[in-house]
């Protein structure tokens, strides 16, 4: 099913709108918290909802290994299993195979790999990835299997990967067929080569997807090169379909991605950095382990409606982190997810009001010097 996507306002390339799914409306631009192993790490779903998340991400790779896709299916699908009744987007697995599994081999038919958990051998083909995501997990937004090359990549290598991804895209579409309630997104590849991004897009458009992702970025090229690639990559994609920048990023990357026409983002950053003592604020990142917070009685964000941001002092959070208390990981992850959502809420409001350029300039001036 091609979910209705309405763009309600735009400013330059930046757009805001609504993606309507049977499990709920997704206001865009949106940030999707990562729930890799059927959990947004350290958070209950009530906390995730209170942080204003509307859609979360799950991973084929992790779930097929543990508890296995078949078991999730027997237990009623991923939504029922984890207790999330909103939309779920699942990644197809290829990217996680390359980055996490012990040994992997990409062939025309499929990728074979050894589990990072117990070394067991597995095969993931475009068809199997669709079966896991769409039939067994019951994902709302299903991603095609693709091949992502690391950076820097030789042109020949990047072309091979985008062409394999395009062939896998066609096989994914054929395996997906037409469905009443689920959507399928294609993935653009091509590293940092404009002509390859163009070729990739042409091939995806020939196949026809419900939405389009930009893959192969945030793989080591750095913020500037990513922005340069997005300058031409995002506008290649159809204006009237959602565009998803995979695995991105820091608040500044979200801001610059939106400015270039991206509608959807996901990243482990807010939860992972929260578990390691780092928080993101309107004034940039803070390391809560720093002794300067030891007697700071102010909250992270008095204006926030998230309890983690508003109701606890930095001194208390510093103490929890220094003591390696579980609550420290929970509160910092909660604050970060709420902050990323608050950023997207402000971005959407600004595009609607025609003040996105001013918001972007203001936040860039706060963040540029602080490695935000
Ligand atoms: N492809 C897929 N998932 C991904 C990526 C990709 O290129 C990236 C790259 N940043 C993150 N997650 N399928």
Automatic annotation (TrEMBL):
Entry GO CC: cytosol
**Which pathway?**
tRNA modification; tRNA-queuosine biosynthesis
Catalyses: 7-aminomethyl-7-carbaguanine + guanosine(34) in tRNA = 7-aminomethyl-7-carbaguanosine(34) in tRNA + guanine
Q: Which GO terms describe its molecular function?
A: tRNA-guanosine(34) queuine transglycosylase activity
InterPro entries hit by this protein:
ArchSynthase1/Queuine_TRR, TGT, TGT-like_sf, tRNA_ribo_trans-like
Which Pfam families does the entry link to? TGT
Binding-site list for substrate: 91-95, 146, 189, 216
Instruction: Write out the entry's keywords from A to Z.
Output: Glycosyltransferase, Queuosine biosynthesis, Transferase, tRNA processing
Which terms does the UniProt entry file under GO BP?
A: tRNA queuosine(34) biosynthetic process
**EC id:** 2.4.2.29
What SUPFAM superfamilies does the entry give?
tRNA-guanine transglycosylase
| Leading EC class | transferase
Q: Which residues form the tRNA-guanine(15) transglycosylase-like domain?
A: 13-367
**Sequence segments annotated as region (RNA binding):** 247-253, 271-275
Q: In which family does this protein belong, per the annotation? A: Belongs to the queuine tRNA-ribosyltransferase family.
Q: Which PANTHER family match?
A: QUEUINE TRNA-RIBOSYLTRANSFERASE
User: Subunit arrangement?
Assistant: Homodimer. Within each dimer, one monomer is responsible for RNA recognition and catalysis, while the other monomer binds to the replacement base PreQ1.
Physiological role? Catalyzes the base-exchange of a guanine (G) residue with the queuine precursor 7-aminomethyl-7-deazaguanine (PreQ1) at position 34 (anticodon wobble position) in tRNAs with GU(N) anticodons (tRNA-Asp, -Asn, -His and -Tyr). Catalysis occurs through a double-displacement mechanism. The nucleophile active site attacks the C1' of nucleotide 34 to detach the guanine base from the RNA, forming a covalent enzyme-RNA intermediate. The proton acceptor active site deprotonates the incoming PreQ1, allowing a nucleophilic attack on the C1' of the ribose to form the product.
Q: Which HAMAP family match?
A: Q_tRNA_Tgt (MF_00168)
Per its record, how is this protein called by name? Queuine tRNA-ribosyltransferase
Which species is this record about?
A: Asticcacaulis taihuensis
Question: Gene encoding it?
Answer: tgt
């Amino acid at each position: 099913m091609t979910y209705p996507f309405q763009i309600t306002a735009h400013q330059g390339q930046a757009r805001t709108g609504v993606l309507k799914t049977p499990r709920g409306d997704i206001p865009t631009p949106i940030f999707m918290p990562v729930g890799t192993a059927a959990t947004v790490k350290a958070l209950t779903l009530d906390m995730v909802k209170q942080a204003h998340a509307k859609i979360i991400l799950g991973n084929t790779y992790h779930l097929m290994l543990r508890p296995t896709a078949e078991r999730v299916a027997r237990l009623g699908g991923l939504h029922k299993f984890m207790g999330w009744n909103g939309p779920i987007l699942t990644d197809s697995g290829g990217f996680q195979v390359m980055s996490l599994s012990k040994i992997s081999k990409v062939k025309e038919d499929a990728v074979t790999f050894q589990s990072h958990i117990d070394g067991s051998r597995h095969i993931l083909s475009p068809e199997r990835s669709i079966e896991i995501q769409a039939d067994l997990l019951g994902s709302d937004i299903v991603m095609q299997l693709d091949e992502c090359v690391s950076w820097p990549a030789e042109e020949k290598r990047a072309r091979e990967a985008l062409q394999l991804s395009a062939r896998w895209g066609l096989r994914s579409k054929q395996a997906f067929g037409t469905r009443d309630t689920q959507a399928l997104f294609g993935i653009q590849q091509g590293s940092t080569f404009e002509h390859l991004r163009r070729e990739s897009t042409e091939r995806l458009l020939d196949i026809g997807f419900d939405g389009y992702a930009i893959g192969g970025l945030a793989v080591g090229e750095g913020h500037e090169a990513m922005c340069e690639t997005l300058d031409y990559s995002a506008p290649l994609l159809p204006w009237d379909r959602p565009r998803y920048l995979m695995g991105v990023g820091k608040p500044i990357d979200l801001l610059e991605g939106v400015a270039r026409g991206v509608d959807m983002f996901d990243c482990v950053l807010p939860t992972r950095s929260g578990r390691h003592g780092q928080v993101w604020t309107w004034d940039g990142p803070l390391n809560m382990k720093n002794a300067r917070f030891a007697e700071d009685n102010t909250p992270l964000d008095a204006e926030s409606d998230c309890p983690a941001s508003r109701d606890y002092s930095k001194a208390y959070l510093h103490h929890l982190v220094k003591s390696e208390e579980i609550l420290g990981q929970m509160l910092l992850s909660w604050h970060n997810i709420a902050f990323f959502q608050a950023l997207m809420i402000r971005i959407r409001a600004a595009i609607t009001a025609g003040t996105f350029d001013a918001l972007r300039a203001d936040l860039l001036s706060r963040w540029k010097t602080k490695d935000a």
